[in-house]
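Model: You mentioned two targets. I'll fold them one after the other.
Researcher: Yes, keep them separate.
Model: Target one:
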Amino acid sequence: MHIEQQSIFEYSGNYSSFEIQRATKLSQQQSMFGNQQLKIEHLQSFIDHFKAKASKAKQA
């Protein structure tokens, strides 16, 4: 078991297996975070681009 950010995660196997599983999980979380940030930047750019034009404001 591993406690992280007030949550308990249970891993199967020995300590080496735990390290591999945890590293994989962290890598996936970082990748998902990066993708979310790109999407946020894209949406913010879209909003900023169209909010200045009254005729296009409904799209934003």
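Model: Target two:
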Amino acid sequence: MFRNRVEFLPSFEFFEIPRSAYKDIYHLASYIFDSPSAKIEILKLPNILGTSLNFEFSGSKTEERILDHLGNTPNTVLELHDIPNGFDLDKQVKAHKPKVPEYMIVAPLQDAKGEILGILCMHDNKTISVDNRQKQAFKVLANQTVSLITLYQEEKRPLMAQTLVDNKNITLGNFMEANDSANWRFDTAKGHLWFNPLFFEMLGYTPEELKLESVDSWIDMVYFFDQDRFKDTWQKWNNNELLNNELECRMVHRSGDIVFVTIEINNSKINDAGKPILLEGEIQDVSTQKKVWEQIELINPKYTSVIQAGYNWMAIVDSDGTYTYVNKTLESALGYSSEELIDQCIFNLVHEDERKRVINYFSKFLNNEPFISKPFRYQHKNGTWKWIEILCANLMEDPMIQGVVINARDITKRVMENKEIKASEEKHRLLFNASPYPKYFLELDSLRILDVNNAMIQFYGYTKEELLNMNATDLRPKEEINKLLISLENYRIPKEIFKSGVFVHKKKNGELVEMDIVGQHIYIDGSQCILVTCNDVTENRTNQIAIEKQNKKLREIAWMQSHIVRAPLARMMGIIELFYGNLVDENEKIEMLDHVYSSALELDTIIKDIVLKSQSIISKENS
């Protein structure tokens, strides 16, 4: 998959991008075209052109066709079929005689300014058929590839005013993992509890070392003196009493140390009876904040722990949030001078989506409630947004301070990195759902169906909820289950793409269909899974059987022509030879003519039978 150059496009150079990014693009293209033999190239424009297509170019005819397309219709993809080997190569390249693909599709890599950076090219050594939806998906993939290229080129540069990522549109959920927050989910019907790996890291374990599959096992990890409060809160959440949606408690680290966490419930799904069937939320490690909080005394050597924790922006505000002091670090980080901030309200520069929440937390803090930082966006002087996290110390009573000391740290980089992860997941999701082929994610150990695309729902006739409560055996008739289990054993040997073969599947209405199955390995939440792609080949198989039957009849006709027809014809020809040689006397002529007549009748019957069988085959082909 990774080569030094593309021999049939010698003037185009490879873009320098991380191997992992290239692999992501390769897999996404595989989802689009469903061709295991397809190859993907991410190529720069020829050096002589730069980003301009107006210079005269001397290269192969295929390259000229690509550049001509980019110059005239840069917003569309280009398809090339049946490219003759050696037909369009210049003299220098002809000597090498590179193998030219049977099929090629090219999408432009065009940046936000409209400049062409290069091309995204998929080629295959066999001719494939691509519909409009696949072309559109390939164009979307090209646009996402431009973002990956630009990010890679920018990653060593400092974060500037014109950032590639528009962080104004990030939701709070996008940075949970980047901000030491883990996800949890509880299925009340099955009693199944799930955490993402970050939660286990908080406690010093791996998911394999610590099996937490029930609420009771979770409670066992809670500090003994906090367990009753945890149970009371959990009981309320389980009764859909979500007025207090956050719990702070202590948990025990593997080392025996105490870890302070806040457990928040942010999603609850209920059934028709009003009972929760699914609870979801996040867990945030606030140990650092707690330790800093215990030590934060402004005029005290212990205050350096705040700086060491990265909270090196400092400001003092009054009870209304008006700045009375800012330090130099905050000035340089946000671009404002102290004169511009003093007497201004701190909340005016908070993003409008988070402003109400931040003001509410600040008000609670002034009423002596603990302040646990929730990240929010704060506006830089140049108009961009910084994600920040803050700690507060109420020193209103201090005669020297008379205000609230706020320490903040910039977490924009972590949030941006996490947004790229989320964006990549969303790209996979869009391409997964847009595929015309039924697809589903299968957990290899349990055979549970984890997710399905729209084509899967339409083809099999089940609702999404029904499919997610099924496993792979439910899609097969009983006699096919053993064949499935044998096939799945082969999947335990990791391969990027594995073609299983043809299996019989059963739709919801009982209809049996023959499906060609291709699987790709993927890990979801640490579990080995398979992305299964299904292709209905029932009609093809039926046609194949019909062709085999027709061929059998044609062989019978051929046999009749070569054997049955030959007998009466040979008799007739023998008698005619006797007449021709005047070897028949007058007494034998009548008998010989009777033999000729009977042989002619036999031959006529055979010919009619051949005609009837031929017409039968033709009528079945037309029906």
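Researcher: Noted. Anything on target two?
Model: The chain has 19 helices and 19 strands.
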